[in-house]
Amino acid sequence: MSGVAPSDAVNYFIYRPVHGASIAFAILFGASGFAHIWQNNLKYKSYRIGFLLPWAALIFTAGFILREYGSYHTNNLGIFIASTVLLFVAPPVYNGANYFIAGRAIYLPYLSPIHPGRVWTTFIALDTFADIIAGNGAARAVNAGATDSEREAGLTLVKVSLFMLLGMFMAFMFLTILFHYRAVKMGVCNYKLKVIMYELYASNLLILLRNCFRTAAFFYPWNSVANSQEWLLWVFEFVPMVINSYLMNIYPPAKYLPANHKVYLAMDGKTEIEGPGMIDKRPFLATLLDPFDIWGVINKKDRKNRYWLRDGIGGPLPDAQPNNQEAPEVHGKV
């Protein structure tokens, strides 16, 4: 069996965990989390963008506090499971934050490969599903009191969730790169958008490093180098994640993106306009079964959402100008 120690092991960590490092990282993540709250929520008033970043830091802080306690009580199964699960599910929350940031960065809706309003909702839903699978699987896999079949089932769940995360990562990166390419080609990739895009690239690569290590480790035996050497966990998971958190502190996303989610950048690449927002008037069942409105694209009915073509800058769209459509409000230049 791979990935877990025998049920009669006294030290549930397999190795003897180092003392002090976990509490240091708890302090680092705690400080970063408070900085996220101050920067994104209090200073720039962007609660949508700033919610997940401090939440991820809080999970890491709690996980490291428990891990530090567990380093002195290696036979405490409850503490071991709790710390392992918290530290395992925290990184995907940063993934979720990137989905929010990317969804807001696509405030050039005319360049989005898919409907901008469905970017973060789609990925968040899939990520949440994978996170639930990962949390349940990790709890079973590290529970030495479980049967072999239960732990094997837990390992299988974790592996499935990790492959799901890798697949979503590739899809998300494709969408991000395609949007960035279109913005550069059209000449509307201003300084603020460049900062956000390169920040997303760096963050995604750090998360990818962690995900690849975790995925590989679960396919090796529990007593292999990948699972029995603590320094690998610190180098390939914990250090990249703390770098990622402070990257978001150095370049707080809310500083470079409008706090109002209805504001978008007009097709001149300079004027910020407040539109009606990403409204989808379809029935709830239709949005659930067809989140990308593929049927609307085929029937050319998706144009009802293209309000940026009626703002007097990027339009007009000849066959999509309802008489009762209000003109978007111009906010100014960027």
Structure description:
This protein has helices at residues 21-43, 47-50, 52-72, 77-105, 119-141, 148-186, 191-217, 225-228, 230-250, 253-256, 284-289, 294-298, and strands at 263-265, 271-274, 329-333. The chain has 334 residues and is mainly alpha-helical. The longest helix has 39 residues, at 148-186. 62% of the residues lie in helices and 4% in strands. Mean pLDDT is 80; it is low at 1-9 and 315-328. It has two domains: 21-256, Rhopdopsin 7-helix transmembrane proteins (Up-down Bundle); 265-333, no CATH class. It has twelve helices and three strands; from the N terminus they run ααααααααααββααβ. A hairpin with a 5-residue loop joins strand 1 and strand 2. Helix 4 runs antiparallel to helix 5. The radius of gyration is 23 Å and the shape is globular. A three-stranded antiparallel β-sheet has the order 1-2-3, with no helix packed on it.
